[in-house]
Design goal:
By secondary structure, this protein is an alpha+beta fold. The protein has 8 helices and 8 strands.
């Protein structure tokens, strides 16, 4: 059992900041979140539920650090012998509909590429305050899932990234081009963010600039992360894993959230 005191998640911070982050803050968030995913991927783990609510800031000396939480849907993408899980289709949806990848919609087994595609949707959402598939008029959940899938598949990248630096469309295209068992080029993704900074005269200083006047210490959350380690055989063994160090807990359960 791990008890760790953390601050607000990105969704809550976004709302407190009048749903507007500076481009500099977005670039800082992008760099950190890419690194968090690279870290867990290097531990042979995929998260499978990347969304703003699962990234929290630290407090005090760690106020400029983002933490990735909630490993309830995570699983290992390599077995104990180091072999990648096989390509399988016909899988159930896992994750949050708004942010899941196109391949997840299509029922394809998730891998590292899907975490990264979800991440760029989060980044675009924080940049624009919206995504083309938010607010669609639907009659029921199944229609909602289908319409969101079609919007993701058939929307041009320029439409999804309308009004944003072109680098974010490049980021999205890259995540969709990654092979199922291919190791993503995380350095390339960080280079894309670096190019955004250069073109906009942004100097990254590893500081997350939010409107602290909107903060309330009563909003700080005490989190109990209680997760199980998952392997390809759905092992019930527990293991501590820490995003910054090496002990956190991973709990395996499959679910999907509508928002």
């Amino acid at each position: 059992m791990i008890m760790e005191l953390l601050g607000d998640n990105l969704e809550k911070l976004f709302n407190k900041n009048n749903r507007k982050f500076s481009l500099k803050t977005i670039c800082e968030i992008s760099n950190q979140t890419i690194s968090r995913l690279e870290y867990i991927h290097n531990k042979n783990i995929i998260h499978r539920d990347i969304k703003p609510e699962n990234f929290l800031i630290g407090i005090n000396n760690n106020k400029n650090t983002l933490y990735l939480i909630d490993y309830g849907l995570s699983k290992k993408y390599k077995n104990k012998n180091g072999f990648h899980i096989p390509y399988i289709d016909g899988k159930k949806l896992i994750g949050t509909i708004r942010y899941i990848s196109v391949n997840t919609h299509l029922g394809i087994e998730q891998s590292r590429r899907d975490d990264l595609e979800s991440l760029i949707y989060v980044i675009i959402y924080l940049l624009k305050g919206n995504l083309p598939w938010i607010g669609l008029k639907v009659k029921n959940k199944n229609e909602k899932i289908e319409k969101i899938m079609n919007k993701k598949i058939y929307s041009k990248l320029d439409e999804i990234c309308d009004g944003l630096p072109k680098e974010f469309a490049i980021f999205l295209q890259y995540t969709r081009d990654i092979g199922f068992d291919q190791t993503p080029n995380y350095s390339f993704l960080r280079k894309i963010i670096e190019n955004v900074c250069k073109k906009n005269n942004i100097v990254l200083d590893n500081e997350l600039h939010f409107d602290e006047s909107n903060f309330d210490n009563k909003d700080m959350n005490k989190l109990i992360v209680n997760i199980k380690n998952v392997d390809n055989n759905e092992s019930e063994d527990k293991k501590k894993i820490n995003i910054n160090e090496e002990n956190k807990l991973i709990n395996n359960k499959e679910n999907i959230s509508e928002d």
